[in-house]
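FAQ
Q: What does a multi-component entry look like?
A: The components come first, one per line:
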Amino acid sequence: MISTLQKTIRPVRAVRGLHKSAVEVLKRPDPEDTVTASYGRFISEVKPQHLSSLVLHRSKRMVLDSIGVGLIGSTTDVFELALQHCQHMYAPDDISSVYGRRGSRLSPTLAAFVNGVATHSMDFDDTWHPATHPSGAVLPAVLALSDMMPNSKPSGSDFLLAFNVGIEIQGRLMRFSHEAHNIPKRFHPPSVVGTMGSAAACARLLSLDHSQCSHALAIAASLSGAPMANAATQSKPLHIGNASRLGLEAALLASRGLKASPLVLDAVAGVAGFDAFYEDYVPEPLESPNDGHVFLLEEQDMGFKRFPAHLGMHWVADAAASVHTLLVGLGPGTVSPSQVQDILLRVPKSKYINRPFPESEHEARHSFQFNACSALLDGEVTVQSFTPAALRRPDILALLSRVRVEHPHDNPANFNSMYGEVQVTLVEGHILKGRCDTFYGHWRNPLTNESLRKKFRNNAGAVLRSEQVEGLIDVVGGLDTLGDCRDLLSQLQ
Amino acid sequence: MLCKGITESFGAAIHALNTTKLTDGVISRSKRMMLDTLGVGLIGSRTAVFNKALMYSQSFKSDERSSVWGKSQITLPPPFAAFVNGIAVHSMDFDDTWHPATHPSGAVLPALLALAETLPSRPSGLDLLLAFNVGIEVQGRLLRFSREAFNIPERFHPPSVVGVMGSAAASAKLLALSPAECIHALAIAASSAGAPLANAATQTKPLHIGNAARRGLEAAQLAQMGLEGNPAILDIPSGFGVYYKDYSPSAMTVPASGDFKWMLEDQNIAVKRIPAHLGMHWVVDAALAARAKLENTARNFDLGQIRRVILRVPPSKYVDCPLPSTEHQARHSFQFNASSALLDNKVTVSSFSEAQMNRPALKELLSKVKVETPKDNHPSFDKMYCEVEIETDQGQSYAARCDTFYGHWRKPLSQEDLVDKFSVNASSVLCSEGVEGLIDVVGNMERVRECSILGSYLRLTSSQQEQCYSLQRL
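Then the predicted structure of the entire assembly, as tokens:
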């Protein structure tokens, strides 16, 4: 085995090294022995046969969901703005297709940008643990790059491999810190690991050598990092758009020979690399794909959203929905604010999703209070719950003014361990409670294939004809056996 | 969320600043910065990193095109012109440095020139000067929001943090955005900030400036189209504060009548004489002085007689590189710059070529260099010093110390030497009409009718140069 050979060679190098100043040897790790180099090697060496059937199955679900949310996202204002920006600042280009816009094509990185914006525009895209939105940062770049490849398009299995590399790298990087395991406070995770994932995926698809793969990651690190303050604003979707775009750019620059730090993932005292984005950081090398490597997606499934809002909202929505059912059972069939005296939410402490009176759709998607009240009134939260009219409903506003929020000590700000409780005190004195530990769509209670397809049909159907919608379901379902991903690329508009 | 109105004040200030607020002092200093920046950008257009970025950027199409400095035939979409020109400016680490530490001009000027060439309003030289100074001022303000910024950086490379904000502010000014749009330009730019220091001393470092210019311009354009971000981006710790461990922002106010106090008037910039990290300038001046002592005293002076060279420098990991293997590392190596100075009695652009770096005599000298970091040597460009002590085989010792190198803000380059640096740099790429034209236009910038004329001079290459270069391997 080559890896064991390498292990025997290393001590010899160390002995020779002693002829230099011993201090020099200690300071400089063997360039092959770094965490960064191990990532470069993994990306360059991994092959389709390293993907297990479970990983293939789960990642195809992610691809389908991501395309769907991207398609419905192409109806949003922020997407329109991003698209116009690209079309005005640059010119239309014949290369990579734009979600849902027949005939619109852009340069690959710009297509990755707008499609990434679309994907995250309604906060409808997938969420993982540790927390990030992995697919939106990777899929648009892989699609755009596939469109760019001149002669033969990648096979479906090469496509899926690149996609999974992009997901895997994100998962691995997040495990370098404890900070990443909790709901973020400083940097928005997709802007940190998403760019790296996109770079990795594109490096894989471009078949870069291990050194170029390392440099792609290092170049991407200089393009990573956006503050949490822009979450819950119209700029948030650009975090995913830029992650996708800039990761692709990093891979393209690396393919042209641009070099960057060979230690970007390693922790070097006094010179921050990727650890600049974290308070605690302990990197681990990535083993060779031939050494019994297991993809993280095998062990940690993905969460899919049932409605377009921050993941945390799904807990309170499910809890509030169960109270709605009780209320409706008790009374006239609908819920009216006049019945409600007080609403108490018990949720984890997280400033950016604690918004008593959201003023925009973006804020509403990041408001425990708004989502609880919507679900309490309507029994569910849907795409329609965030329209301008819906935001201003008198009933919603009335309920919002009666909400209190508590942060129990046993409710951590962590998507794996949190819960949501809704306690409604009725005017006539009854107290109704609802609690959700695991919402339907969470990785512990995943959407069935049927539910996932239903979500996809609703989303894609907003923009495509039904033959195209069904066509995409079929193509993605059989993606790993597809000889040529052209069939996928051609159906996105 | 606590909103102290700081971001709002920046938006209002960027909008309110007008050409009447420009003072003679700030005009004079910023023109020097512009000239120096153009010069280093021109010579930078012959580097490998620039060429890689140029080839990449040429794959983008656009209707509007802006000049690429030092190229007569090539134009690019404005954001990519800003990108490659910014890269050129920082490609050899030859551009200006400020205190608190950043490279302010390279993040701003390329964006403004690219933008100016496409604006139907055809901005004047005075408009350019105003926008440029807005970009510099905003950077200076942001750097003062933390104590961390006052020292040589360890986490994020400052141009990638404040540079993109300066570019956004400057572009917003040139685009005449409303106060609200200026706020959002800053907010959008903040999501493009922050590159880790690990990529300093690599080929990617120049991209930090290139991207600052490009993405700041883009942020302003997106804001102009109505994109919004967090209007309290500078106020809150989860906003711009994420880039600093300590963060204490304050408002920016422009008096309606009366003078505006530009930071550039109080705090000048440093212009480099050597294409290397600023810290190297101290060690080179000290090494040259120590060498002179050795030469004056010793009869038959022979470098082979050097037993040891001790450098006393501030602690800064990313410029402590005993055996650099690339030009980028060499520009960030106390040891390399001291050794070059001792060997050649000067450090110039050519000191960093592969041939020069591989000289056995240099490598031998490098192996004799020892670095010490005395406690009183503070890692701050305002406070540091360098000492070089040469020990000979005969047991003698020649030491010299540099507190303030020539070119530092405490000892600025004379106008003659500044123009000279520019001429040498620009002549490597432009014909003499181009060189002189730029000196003339920048020198009279406040009277220039259309600042885009700079673009036409920046393209006046001497055909010999361009032909010669295209034959060389990249």
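Q: Is there any commentary attached?
A: Sometimes. For this entry: The beta strands of chain B are 66-67, 75-76, 306-312, 369-372, 386-392, 397-402.
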